[in-house]
Design goal:
The chain has 476 residues and is mainly α. The chain has helices spanning 2-7, 16-28, 56-71, 77-80, 86-94, 101-117, 122-140, 146-158, 166-176, 189-202, 207-216, 223-239, 242-260, 265-272, 278-286, 288-305, 309-325, 327-364, 368-371, 386-424, 426-438, 452-460, 471-475.
Length: 476
Amino acid sequence: MVEYVTTQRGVITEAIYPEAIHMFASNLFRTLPPSSNPNGAEFDPEEDEPTLEAAWPHLQLVYEFFLRFLESPDFQPNVAKRFIDQTFVLQLLELFDSEDPRERDFLKTTLHRIYGRFLGLRAYIRKQINNIFYRFIYETEHHNGVAELLEILGSIINGFALPLKEEHKVFLLKVLLPLHKVKSLSVYHPQLAYCVVQFLEKDPSLTEPVIVSLLKFWPKVHSPKEVMFLNELEEILDVIEPAEFNKVMVSLFRQLSKCVSSPHFQVAERALYYWNNEYIMSLISDNANVILPIMFPSLYKNSKSHWNKTIHGLIYNALKLFMEMNQKLFDECSQQYKQERQSEKLKQKEREDAWQKIQDLAHQNPQHAWIMSDNSIKYVDADGTDDEYRDLTMMVNNVNNVLSSNRTLILNSAYDSERDGAAIDGDDREVKKSVGKEKPLLRRKSGLPHDSLTLKALSDHKRADEYLATSQETTS
């Protein structure tokens, strides 16, 4: 059938449409099995094996037939739109959560063909894709077909007419950019970056809100994700207009300065590769009087202190380029940096002098001699001797002895009260002893959710309470 539809002409008549679409829906629209990764952990294509659909040999034939049906020169959208409606599209989009990448690839091509041929369904398809992304970002953080949907959108965005409609700008700012904060970003980041860059090529005025949002969502402790952000940022800078660059260069290079200072060498290395990009260097050269003072402290400091020697070479290259751009400005930044270092040293010395004054005032206190006696803590100078440290240890031991003696008195008192109560009434004694046994075994309950199998195993387990009595009660 697939070969017949592909090679023959005039075979798709009006009577075929309901039968072909019903066949497709009956075989493919189904409830997907539960996810093998319900927690939504990041899928690594190099390490993890995808879950494949057992019925794929059958499903593949159905997909191929329907795809050839849509692509046939005899296909008439005006006839098919009675059967391929919004309900059909919604059920098709639900299948994008399939874990089989082969099925998602066919779905991507099929949906793209439907979007191209059915003009009346375009707005509805975009709206439903938005809803999938909203649910993915703010509710589940788990969906298998995000990368494929973004591939479709990349092609759709490329065809947007100018000037861009307001709904398309909202889609960029409210849907695409928040996708950067999801923990599984690495699965679909190349497709997402392509969509963002397509928007900026269409409308350069969107550059400022896009970069501001990227800086807002910039990862703090996830270095691989930070490298992805740096990759995307360089793609954006490749298409940025000089006027738009001037609006964001201060905040942008403050973040790049932090990246250069990152102890993770891949982050620092990726940031320093910006100095190998000719267009970015031309933008930096035109605004060196603003950018160099921001970058110089981190470059100079890490040229000596960074642990990775590769970073040293890249930093020296960046400093050399800055020096060649504007020797006078470079010398001014160097002098300013040295002055700032001197002022920091002076502030540090002022703090130390202030603490020294407080120390001298403490020595003048009348109670100083008693506080510094043998039974109290000795003051330890910066260059303190072993005797002074020994006095400190003696004081700590004394405090511990006092605390332990008080604890013993409290326990003995509680034990005497319990013994006196036992003499009054034998029954009450048994009750109090049982309470005494339970007290040392009390534990604060965890606030974390429990697994049902774990709870059942705990309820079935019988503890040996008779072996858990405290030593004080055992001796009595």
